[in-house]
TrEMBL record:
Signal peptide: none annotated. Keywords: Dioxygenase, Iron, Membrane, Metal-binding, Oxidoreductase, Transmembrane, Transmembrane helix. Residues 347-476 form the Fe2OG dioxygenase domain. Its cofactor is L-ascorbate. This is Probable prolyl 4-hydroxylase. GO terms for molecular function: iron ion binding; L-ascorbic acid binding; procollagen-proline 4-dioxygenase activity. Residues 91-104 have a biased composition (Polar residues). It comes from Seminavis robusta. The keyword Glycoprotein does not apply. The chain crosses the membrane at residues 45-65. The keyword Cytoplasm does not apply.
């Protein structure tokens, strides 16, 4: 039986002229150079260190006020957060006797409490089994050195490797340490630069940043490094629940803003989270109403081996893309989604609304594009996936209705199971029951940036009732020419 792998895709749109070649995310605002320097000249060491720490945290949080996942890619390089480093240099010129006695009291420059590398915080990011390409790094900055503890592939270990760098290292030294101890591979034309994030998904550094002042970073406490360059929530273990704050774009006008979301890990292989109540009643109704006039039996982008076959061989539901991004309810959810996955809105496709009537289904497939399977489709290869560099990374799948019977989303390769022989089979695997307002988040790419074949999934036939749902696809790179963030 022919393998029925296929992807569903927005039809190609004329590419707008956009320069997104070399983009850096500017996550730290430049320091204004004021604050604690005069008091650190006058008084002893303990007092100025505290002032410096407070000033550092203040300017760090100012830098974080507009999280990167709400911003478009900017072309500035990483710059200084605080004047803490300069103050530290001044302090180092003080008498060594004075320094010694005070250092014992304020030896460690405290990271923001929520990012401190405590065993509790570590238990929220480490896994029993290695996660290829996601690394946890603990930074312990003292007056004299920076201690770096590595948890390669975000795996628990009682004896993690660590190193000690003298003073506050330069970006090059820190970068070399990460590359060596985490075995990071350099970017090339098919791979994004690796990147360093706060545990809350804030982009801090990228491999291709040129001028980085390390003070803000070194005092972060814990950072996550992703070989694939994009943030992915650590799954930790099945049943793990993480409540995250949701941030909103300042232009957002909706009154009913959700402040938090709770992600529950429902599978590690593939990585799947469930978020109850992510969408409100009004929103579920709105998307059904908005989509109804343009619903049509679904198209799929056929792989080479499937060319000529009708889409209904695989997928019998109706669907439509909603393209009016200026509608407040649509853009509101785009921003909410950017915050949910901590990936900027410009990585999102327009939402695709789905409706399954009785008996309608969608056989198991991947949402990513495997470039090997599109070698005879130059348009998809070039325009969408840029020969494999760009791809769908995340599906945020919305359930807009309850379904009386059937209509589950199935992951047949749950737990690393082998590929099913029959892609229409709905017996084995993880089955997610639709529930109005709930979304699931699943990752088609792994933290190292490679395709995750275990993300295979399908829609079981609806047995009773109607299933309304939607796909919100988030790419691993900006898609300004066909995404919803245009
Ligand atoms: O309807 C579902 O549960 C899944 C649909 C799906 O995977 C898709 O539209 O790509
Ligand atoms: Fe899908």
């Amino acid at each position: 039986m022919a393998k029925k792998k296929h992807s569903n895709q927005n039809p190609p749109v004329q590419k707008k002229k956009q320069d997104n070649k070399k983009s850096h995310n500017n996550h730290h605002q430049p320091s204004n150079g004021s604050s604690s320097s005069s008091s650190s000249k006058k008084s002893g060491l303990v007092f100025p260190v505290w002032i410096c720490v407070v000033a550092g945290l203040l300017s760090l949080s100012l830098g974080l006020l507009t999280p990167h996942f709400l911003r478009h890619q900017s072309s500035t390089t990483t710059s200084a957060t605080t004047n803490k480093h300069r103050d530290l240099q001044k302090q180092k010129t003080m008498s060594s006797q004075q320094q010694e006695s005070d250092v014992t009291m304020t030896d460690r420059l405290h990271p923001p409490p929520e990012f401190a590398c405590t065993s509790d915080r570590l238990s929220q990011v480490l896994h029993d089994k290695p996660v290829a390409g996601m690394h946890v790094v603990c930074l312990n900055q003292t007056m004299a050195s920076l201690q770096i503890v590595f948890y390669p592939n975000a795996q628990h270990t009682s004896n993690p490797p660590s190193i000690q760098l003298e003073g506050l290292p330069a970006w090059d030294g820190f970068k070399d340490a990460l590359v060596t101890h985490l075995q990071l591979t350099p970017m090339d034309e098919l791979h994004q630069p690796w990147a360093v994030f706060s545990p809350d998904g804030e982009l801090l550094l990228r491999e291709d940043n040129e001028h980085v002042q390390m003070d803000g970073v070194a005092s972060m406490g814990m950072v996550l490094v992703f070989q694939g360059g994009q943030f992915i929530w650590p799954g930790v273990k099945i049943g793990f629940r993480r409540t995250i704050p949701l941030h909103y774009d300042s232009t957002s006008t909706t009154s009913a803003k959700k402040q938090t979301a709770t992600l529950e890990t429902i599978s590690l292989e593939p990585l799947v989270f469930a978020v109850d109540g992510f969408l409100g009643e009004e929103e579920c109704d709105f998307f059904q109403t908005q989509a109804t006039p343009s619903m049509a039996y679904s198209e799929v982008t056929l792989m080479d081996m499937d060319k000529g076959r009708p889409a209904s061989d695989f997928r019998t539901s109706q669907s439509t893309f909603l393209t009016d991004n200026t509608h407040p309810m649509i853009s509101e959810i785009d921003y909410r989604t950017a915050s949910l996955v901590r990936v900027p809105r410009v990585h999102q496709e327009n939402v695709q609304v789905l409706r399954y009537g009785n008996g309608e289904k969608y056989d198991a497939h991947h949402d990513y594009f495997d470039k090997q399977l599109y070698q005879n489709d130059p348009s998809t290869l070039r325009n969408f996936i840029q020969y494999g560099r760009r791809n769908r990374m995340i599906t945020v799948f919305w359930y807009l209705s309850d379904v009386e019977e059937g209509g589950e989303t199935i992951f047949p390769r749950f737990g690393g199971a082998p590929p099913p022989r029959n892609m229409a089979d709905c017996q084995t695997g993880l089955k997610v029951k639709p529930a109005r307002g709930k979304v699931i988040i699943f990752y088609s790419l792994k933290p190292d940036g490679s395709l995750d074949p275990l993300s295979l999934h399908g829609a079981c036939p609806v047995r009773k009732g109607i299933k309304w749902a939607a796909n919100k696809w988030v790419w691993n790179l900006p898609i300004p020419e066909f995404g919803s963030g245009r």
